[in-house]
């Protein structure tokens, strides 16, 4: 019985780990230490809703005593959050602070889409604006609120074509994004017949010699190789 319970416990832990991995593939969470928040807050605030009271988004800690409220953004430290205020004073009871979206530079293999500000690290309480009642914690004895940034990541996969002595069609894509529509693969140019051997293209496959799965329409559901790339064989 003890062995059976141990096996059940192991399976539960394994399922939980897999679930975390799946979620991580969809959403990137980049928590920066709140003490380094100045790294991704700079001048240039464009929040037009903050016109009735004074705010700052580039403030030395020594100047914090001149302000009444602090907004702490837990975000990717390479994201640009300069359109949001970090320090505020003279916040009225009926005033709302509209929250702007930060930006993050895409890479050749990942695209980033901001998915909202949240009041908790579990992303269960999304907010588009905050007010005086939102400041439920304190920093140095003054009201503060922590906002957590959620990002959705779209991944690109490299596509490798193995054509032997043939020549791949230059219009076949060498990478494909998760949100791209399916692409109908084009035929390569077959090798030149040598009089004794004749070549007839029979399709693209995920393994050599017509093995694996035949692929007509390319998208990111195509099986990947050990390097997490899409590899096709003519």
- Count the DSSP helices: 1
Tally the beta strands: 16
Q: What class would the helix/strand composition place it in? A: mainly beta
Q: Per DSSP, what share of the residues sits in E-state strands of 2 or more residues? A: 25-35%
> How far do the termini sit from each other?
54 Å
Radius of gyration: 26 Å
The description of the largest β-sheet is: 10 strands, mixed
Outline the low-pLDDT stretches.
1-57
- Describe the oligomeric state of these chains in a short phrase: single chain
pLDDT average, as an integer?
74
Bin the helical content. Answer: 10-25%
Features:
ten-stranded mixed sheet, 11% helix, two-stranded antiparallel ribbon, 234 residues, mainly beta, 1 helix, disordered N terminus, 31% strand
Describe the overall structure.
- The structure is a single chain.
- Helices cover 11% and strands 31% of the residues.
- It is built from one helix and 16 strands.
- The protein is mainly beta.
- The strands form four sheets. Strands 1, 2, 3, 4, 6, 7, 9, 10, 11 and 16 form a ten-stranded mixed beta sheet that branches. A two-stranded antiparallel sheet has the order 5-8.
Give the helices and strands, then pairings.
Blueprint (H helix, E strand, L loop, with lengths): L1 H25 E2 L26 E2 L12 E6 L12 E2 L7 E3 L11 E9 L7 E2 L1 E3 L5 E3 L2 E21 L12 E3 L5 E2 L19 E4 L3 E5 L1 E2 L11 E4 L1
Parallel strand pairs: 3-10, 10-16
Antiparallel strand pairs: 1-10, 2-4, 3-4, 5-8, 6-7, 6-10, 9-10, 10-11, 12-15, 13-14
Give a quick summary of the entry.
By secondary structure, the protein is mainly β. It has one helix at 2-26; strands spanning 27-28, 55-56, 69-74, 87-88, 96-98, 110-118, 126-127, 129-131, 137-139, 142-162, 175-177, 183-184, 204-207, 211-215, 217-218, 230-233.
